[in-house]
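Practice set, problem 2.
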Amino acid sequence: MGSKLTATVTPEGATATYKWKRADLADGQYSDIASATSAEYTLIAEDEGKFIKVEATGTDKYNGTVLSQATTAVAGTE
């Protein structure tokens, strides 16, 4: 826990809004993580054993929505 994930978009200078999502299975149903709407997301205890994706939606002159690949299952700290 406490590790940080960072989303980047291309081309350089593009702008986007972000929604981080988690699921129990890599190919499962993803739900939005409340208040996780910036380009960076810090993993929390609730993420342990879950898979994380980020959805980026272009803003201003950039358009379209892209969903990232899932992370591997988030490991806890022991």
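Problem 2, part (b): a different protein.
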Amino acid sequence: MSGLSYVSRFLRGFLVVLVLVLVLAPAAQADVRIKDIATFEGVRGNQLVGYGLVVGLNGTGDRLRNSPFTQKSIEGMLERLGVGNLSEDEMKTENTAAVMVTAMLPPFARLGGTLDVVVSSLGDASSLRGGTLIVTPLTGADGEVYAVAQGPIAVAGYAAQGANASIVEGVPTVARIENGATVEREVDFAFSSLDSVRIALRVPDFTTAERVEDVINNALGPNTATALDPTTIEVRPHDKSDMPEVLARVESLRVDPDSVAKVVIDARSGTIVIGSDVRIDKVAVSQGGLTVMVREDIEVSQPEPISIGETVVVPQTTVAVEEREAKFTVLEGDVSLQRLVDGLNAIGVGAAETISILQAIKAAGALHADLEII
């Protein structure tokens, strides 16, 4: 009896330890879905473009003298509508503007579906606010018409002008029409006729491609996926009867993507993005600055009342030099992202100085990452 009690207590203790291990075990690294890092070859949108006219503008349209293509378009439109030929002197409208209309035809768009379109002025119109786009065919790269756009446009920006001042907010010569185009032609694409599907990674990487291959083979069976190169993984499902279901399962699988260490710098805005895998060898960094300020003040010298003289402009120039004390900071070997940021903050530098420091460290061969300046 005592032996059974000992075994029972041992089993209960083992179960408690097992539960604690499962509960207290560290969570796995957050993975991403395949659909978020890759696309299926052949499943893509198509750009559409068209030329049209916007009418109903309140005197902010193209000036026909500067935009002869607008005049020709108006003449052609009126002729199609049964209006006789008009001379150049009789056509002086400023309520019409020539525009380019662009849209993106999504994959598997069907007849009767709607698209959002962007309307952009082509001539010298000052604003498209309040206008209406006349029926405009939208063609693809093959020259075929895939959609037709028409409707009132919505402008986000505005422009106001007076005799001596003007103000412009946003871009009033670019507008949108929500659901402004109707699909007239479909792009044929049948999944059922495919024997295999290729997955294209948005960021090519051999490690990520191998991980995607392993995840798909574990979920759909061995030899289902094969990594062809750092961008392409070919999927040959054993059951090809329901290809959409197979792709739905594939795109929902989760994988841990890998990426190269990179530092991205936007010199115009002073934005710096440092990846988590960036490493720096042991270096000593010193940053000192010399600031020279030149200020020009304009003063006016006038003659005394009831005297003969002229009013002259007298410039006053002030030059000041400010030198900041340089400090050395030693960055130890194999510096992580946090220690790198702490070290740069210890020097007390701004974004512009940090950009120069990173470029100098890269030139010294101590920055083990791609330095990309945009």
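Answer key, part (b): The mean pLDDT is 78. Residues 7 and 13 are 10 Å apart (CA to CA).
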